[in-house]
Amino acid sequence: MEITELNEKIKQESEFVEILIGEIGKTIVGQKEMVERLVIGLLANGHILLEGVPGLAKTLAIKSLAQSMQAKFQRIQFTPDLLPADLLGTMIYNQKEGNFGIKKGPIFSNFILADEINRAPAKVQSALLEAMQERQVTIGSTTFPLEEPFIVLATQNPIEQEGTYPLPEAQVDRFMLKVKITYPTRDEELKIMKLNVAGAMPSIKPVISPEAIIKARNLVQNIYVDEKIEKYILDIVFATRNPKDFGLEDLTDLISYGASPRASINLALGAKAMAFIKRRGYVIPEDVRSICMDILRHRIAVTYEAEAEDITSEIIIQRILNAVEVP
Fold first, then answer.
1. What residues pair up with 50 in beta bridges, in sequence order?
2. Between 265 and 55, whose confidence is greater?
3. Contact 223/283 with Cβ under 8 angstroms?
4. Are 136 and 234 in the same domain?
5. Residue at a domain's end among 213, 242, 269
6. Above 90 in pLDDT, residue 271?
7. Does the pLDDT at position 146 exceed 90?
8. Of 170, 206, 231, 240, whose CB count within 10 A is highest?
9. 64: exposed, middle or buried (Cβ count in 10 Å: 0-12, 13-18, 19+)
10. What is each CA distance from 126 to 79, 249, 287, in whole angstroms?
11. Does residue 219 form part of some domain?
């Protein structure tokens, strides 16, 4: 397909994005970036880790997204006493028929909200992450494929660390995006207050079907990425591993290890999804830059030295973006 033809097709097919974001906007005031990232995760078939203090409408945004798509939604509150069976399901003995039947757990939905994921022990987290990676669940000796679209949106509270089980780096790496949610502005908070005090929250109408999202995903994969953009993505990722090759010698002692190959894959996918949202059939450097922080911030581990100097992975990413040549 020619670029101009693809561009026209994307322009037509991506019309629903604006309608979808508008529908979610009925209940979510501000938080434009969070809503956009939710749509990117949906289009790129990636899971999202949301980090923010309580009360910033993380749950409401995810619920609104599911309602606007007529998709199945399950909220699971992660607690220290949660078991893998509470998530996946279990075998139950049927006395009448004298055999074991399978009772499926809440994981069998399109949208899973894993609320405060770091409150549950490692075996529950790994059960969830297996479902995320393999898109299937095994109960007893039977394996069930999970229905598409299947997206896990996990939340974690950055403040309270008592009684939590931090997610191991290898598990965090499975999330396509780690989105940090900030407080609303004064004007936004006034609107939020008025909306909630009025009592009746606006109702969300379904504006798109899960089937249409799957169709859109196939289109996103066809979006054109030039060789120069591919090289740019690799330069950014390789600069996290060998900063001195990019004239960033001072970062060598601040990074204990750089981003994995999943970072390159997700940067390319995320940039394609961003181009789709912007109604283009091709990726530009700005698509890569705008999504870069959310894709890399949880994939770079900083050293004790960096922590002592209050240097975060975000500061390092910003330095890399400023140093790597833009095509």
1. 155, 179
2. 265
3. yes
4. no
5. 213
6. yes
7. no
8. 240
9. buried
10. 14, 37, 32
11. no
Characterize 93-106 residue by residue with b for buried, 16 or more Cβ atoms within 10 angstroms of its Cβ, and e for exposed: eeeeeeeeeeeebb
Number of domains in the chain: 2
Boundary-marking domain end, from 157, 186, 213: 213
302 contacts 259 by C-beta, under 8 angstroms: no
Classified as helix, coil or strand, 83 is coil
Same domain for 132 and 178? yes
Beta bridge partners of 169: none
* Cα–Cα distance, 320 to 243 (Å, whole number): 8
**Closest listed residue to residue 327, CA positions, set 214, 235, 189:** 235
Q: Is residue 296 part of a domain?
A: yes
**Quick one: 32 and 122 in the same domain?**
yes
For residue 155, being part of any structural domain is answered with: yes
Query: Following DSSP, what letter does each residue of 228-274 receive, concatenated?
Result: HHHHHHHHHHHHHH-GGGGT-GGGTTTEEE---HHHHHHHHHHHHHH
Per-residue confidence at 161, pLDDT binned at 50, 70, 90? Answer: low
Same domain, 91 and 188: yes
Query: Which residues are registered as beta bridge partners of 49?
Result: 154, 178
- Which pair of tokens denotes residue 185? 């502005």
Alpha-carbon distance 288 to 284, whole Å?
A: 7
